[in-house]
Amino acid sequence: MRLITLSIPLFFVLMGIEWLAGRLRKRRVFRGPDVFANLSLGSAQTVFNVVAVGLLAGAYLAIYEHRLFDIPSSSVLAWTGLMLGVDFAYYWFHRVSHRMNLAWAAHAPHHQSEDYNLAVALRQGPIQPLFSRVFYLPLAWLGFSPAMFATAAGLNTLYQFWVHTELVGKLGPLEWVLSTPSHHRVHHACNGRYLDKNHGGILIIWDRLFGTFEPEVEPVTYGTVKQVRTFNPLLAAITPFRDLAVLSWRAPRFLDKLKVWVMPPEWRPAGVDAPAAEAVEGRTRFDVRFSRRVALYVGLVGVLTLLLTVLFLGRGSSLPLPSRLAFAAWFLASLGGLGGVLEGRRWGPWVEAVRLAAAPVVVALL
User: Which residue range(s) make up the domain with 326?
Assistant: First the structure.
């Protein structure tokens, strides 16, 4: 987490370079509402990590206490093995997240954007770490210390940032070994032939070995098969779980109500018709119209909220749990309120009024 937090300025520098490169190529790389949703969802996951730090780190530490070996942090071989182990575990977490409904609901926000740029790399499912961390626990049992694991996982995450771009083409022989922008464009596609392909983090060899590799050979349509149709980060995060709950409620048989949560996304219970298939290739991207005043408000207040969130990330782990929970509640209100204002919802300004009134209390807690 610390490594990612320290890298935040670099993320914005690289996004600026991507924007400039797009302008030079006469391409519009970013859309304001989408960038707002991306950054907000990424911030939501980091806030969740701080709030749930004990839960997320506790399981790894508990298993590490019963480790098989004492693996030295000074060994180059150990670090090489750990990086391979983290990437292997990431592949399986990522693959399962596309094939099990509950895990997909946590991961889906990362795929909802219908654009593809470096800001999308920062768009994450807020509670996704609850699922991803489980796949790394064998590394604790083997004897990789929590500090080593945190560093290796951070490096794995940092690598994946740069592959979220359309401005880098294919990279020759590197395409055989590494996960590249071309491979990851395929992963973010909702075209039929591209679905559930190219799950690798740093290495693409896992996909080649386990039959989930697909090269980029046709134009890509980004987003999820079912468009989320909102730039409100809170609604975007909730919608996949709401859809699962509705499907579970509609299932006639009790066993199917439970199976809904662990079956693949395309599965439907007996007695529940599948929705009509929609063409995804070339579909119109979701967009909203808003005034210059709204854009100024969301941009200015959104940036101030993100700056306050960065301050929370720096101090959060030392704050008492009630303070962390209070900030998380205020932050969630900011996602819903700003998203509501952006999309012209009548309740948006009311949520914002209450949230801004509470802001001095939140600042005092930090």
Answer: 292-365
